[in-house]
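Quick one from the shared queue. A colleague (R.T.) flagged Xylanolytic transcriptional activator regulatory domain-containing protein as missing a structural entry in our internal table.

Convert sequence to structure tokens.
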Amino acid sequence: MLGPLLDDLLRLYFQNIHAYYPVIDEFDFEQSFSGFSDDGNLRQSRALVLTSMLLCASMYLNTNKSYGYGQWTQKKLQIAVFAATKDLYNAASETGNQTALTQACMLLSYWSPCYQEQAHINSAWLARAFVHAEAAGLREMTSETLTDRSRLIWCCCLVRDRIISYSSRRALNPMSSCTNGVRVSREDFGLEICMPRYSDPDSRNGLVDAFLLLCRLSEILADINEFEQKQRDGERKVGRKEVLRVSQFDIRLREWKRGFQIWKAGPKNSTIQDSRGSYYLRCVVSE
């Protein structure tokens, strides 16, 4: 149905979306998704994740062009893929692989169609991602193999919730609290750091570092959001304790920004083409 457009969408996904939320293993992607399986639930779960990836990537298509064998416009493609994704999710939500369901819902929270469907706004998809992540036990798991994304998937859910909550001034998901102590490192990215499929190793290393910086920033934003929520929930008072707390936020943000500027000044010149999302991750995250 998509023809050569499929390859273009995958490239756009890994060059733009993957930088923000690396829930898919770039190194192992082709082998994992192209291998035959007799398990119908597994095939269905793979299809759900793939359509979610394509939907996110479609945001970076030129709105004035037509694509694929069917001459899809961007909007028509998005409507068709979103309909297929919803059908796949509804079919897999009970019996599908919970990790795959988490990946799909996490990605769907990145792209919110707003086609008069309140049940499918980004925060609703993210809430479902947490439910499936809990069912999969991702919070308790560690990345024991080079292709295990458990910790990264869980961390992506946390970062996504903290960013949405801070920007929309809503309460955090209880599982996004910084007290959970979950942190990821370069080791959690496995082989994709040195053998990425859709970028060069230098660029991928730089984007991994940028994602780790984004994770640290999200922890500060989560603490600020919780503090502001208490102020809005009837505990509004400004005393010495509150002033000191705000001062701590200022210090933490300044320290984070200093670390970001040190990293940015290093040899991180990307060679990736057509990667607007990656560019924004590097340059806007410090604002």
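The chain has a mean pLDDT of 81.
The chain has one domain: 5-284.
Added to the table.
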